[in-house]
Amino acid sequence: MTADPAAQLPTFCHISDFGEYGYRRLHRMIAISQPLTLWSPSSVLLRSKACSVSPDDFVKLVENGTVRIVGRESWLLDRSFRDRHHWDGARWDPKIDGAIRDIFHEDHLGGGARRHPRVAVAPDAGGRQWAAGFLDEHPEQLGFWEGVIVGDRPQDRIPAGTFESIQKMPWDPRGAVEYLLGSARNHGQALANAGSEMDFLLRPADARFLNLMAQARIDGQPAVGPPAPRQAPEPGQEQFLAAQLLEVLARLDDVRGRGGLMRFIGNGGHAELVAWFRTVADLLKGTDPTRFEGELLRHLQNEVRKGSRRGLGSLLDGPPSVVTSVVGAAGVAVDGLQVAQDASVMNLLGVAISTFMIGAGLCQRLGWVGGSFTGIQWPYLYTYGKAPNKDRQTRLLDLLENID
After folding, report:
1. Taking the mean position of all CA atoms in its chain, how far away is CA 189?
2. Quick check: is 70 in a domain?
3. Whole-model pTM?
4. Angle between helices 295-306 and 269-283 (to 10 degrees)
5. Which one of 58, 206, 262, 281 counts the least CB within 10 Å of its CB?
6. Residue 268 domain-assigned?
7. CA nearest 40: which of 94, 77, 84?
8. Looking at the domain assignment, is residue 230 inside a domain?
């Protein structure tokens, strides 16, 4: 049976780059993804008090394909490499990392290789070599990126993990720029190899870095250097919508408390949330992103308020439409939305992501569940773990209308 494309939203997160901040938000990223691909997660951080998903549940989510793992072979399979690593967060955990390794062997060495393996080894990184060649061919780019690194408050526009590594290096402008662009290239290739449509950029600096890549044009020249394995679109409106959705889920968590993610996934709320998000993105296609402030929240308030009204199909009748996406930090605009893909450093690095299609009239069958209380269901299942009724509708509306 072919999976319903409406319930598929492949996303990606280089989660350990965000430290505890990222692991604290893990359950929300899982809730709006299908599947969520994580790059080389840390079992140390998965066991930390900050993590919002228990180790047992995390392993179950990998087993059932809700979460996918991608990383270098040494990270995923070599315990001695991990235990010798200079980073404390790399330490091997037999229960978590052992299970991930077992799943890898099951997917790749069992009775038949999976088409979409739950754990996959990424090719060796070639970003630094690529960056050296790129700067040799485009030396004018060196000054621009050196200014990014040495200008005022670079930590506000360079991803945290990359910035910290550059700070520890002996200062060499060329070497620092190579490392910056090489790291971004490796990230873009990892995203492309994972087959994901959206990249979770949880801090404003990550979205601002996308701005800079869009600005770093190569006048009149097509993309050079080895392309990423698959093309990715320029950042678009979903950056703003997904950031708003993460904020809404954070407020729902205030009354939901910890736990309940597995039940949310099992009772259909997860699939409905993914479908609802894609539908809203399609409804708002063409809206000026600068006017997106609070747009998803207003849409959700209206849907909860309507309660018994069925379907949005009449609003989506017509030809299929294309949605492009990068998930970013709330309130941080990504410039250069119309930058040609073959004339942008963003495309060279493979950080932009591919488009996806939402079919005509799709919303007629998305986000609605039959029952005595018709209408949108996932906010109730996420917040209360139960189907809607009039009392929960009143409480949920009060909560949503008091979100700043």
Report:
1. 14
2. yes
3. 0.75
4. 120
5. 262
6. no
7. 77
8. no
Number of independent structural domains in the chain: 1
Kindly give, in sequence order, each residue whose CB lies less than 8 Å from that of residue 261, ignoring residues fewer than 6 positions away.
Answer: 27, 30, 31, 52, 53, 57
Structure confidence by residue, pLDDT tens digits, 70-129: 999 999 999 999 999 988 999 999 999 999 999 999 988 765 567 778 999 988 878 888
* DSSP label of 234: P
| 358 belongs to a structural domain | no
Q: Which residues contact 328 (CB under 8 A, 6 or more apart)?
A: 201, 206, 207, 210, 235, 239, 240, 242, 243, 334
Main-chain phi, psi angles of 176, to 5 degrees: -65, -40
Residues of the domain holding 91? 5-123
The encoded tokens of residue 105 equal: 């062997």
SS3 37: strand
d(C-alpha 224, C-alpha 176), whole Å: 21
Q: What is the per-residue pLDDT across 285-326, written as a single tens digit (0 to 9) for each?
A: 766 655 666 778 888 888 898 875 343 333 333 333 333 333
Q: Residue 357 has which token pair?
A: 């299609």
